[in-house]
Amino acid sequence: MKKAIFLCLALSIPTAAAAQFVPSAGSAPRICPNRIAMPDWLVNFDVKDAHKINLVQEMYRAQSMTAIVETGDCSCETRFPSWTAASDYYFAHYAGMNRHEILERTSEYRRTANEQRRAAQPVCEAQGNW
Hints:
Secreted protein; signal; single chain; 130 residues; globular; mainly alpha; plasmid
């Protein structure tokens, strides 16, 4: 019985992890509600590819935070740009990497995004977009 419960819980984890990437119906973001949606391939993915999706999301976040810091602009277009640059860069440079390499790159982009976030947040707060 305990094994069956554990198995059910273990099998439900990927589904729960995948659900966090899919916005619920009627839940428009408070900041920049008209932002460009994630491409379908980032929303409708196989759970075994979650590490790849996470990489693209961290690339996108690093791109956004860096652009805010470099330009001093936190408009919706800067804070939530098109996903094209991150998607294209991923496919050109990272799509063929193994899981370990993807996780390393994800950590690098997360570090960059978090560093840039410290400088971007005051800019965005001053412009009412945080």
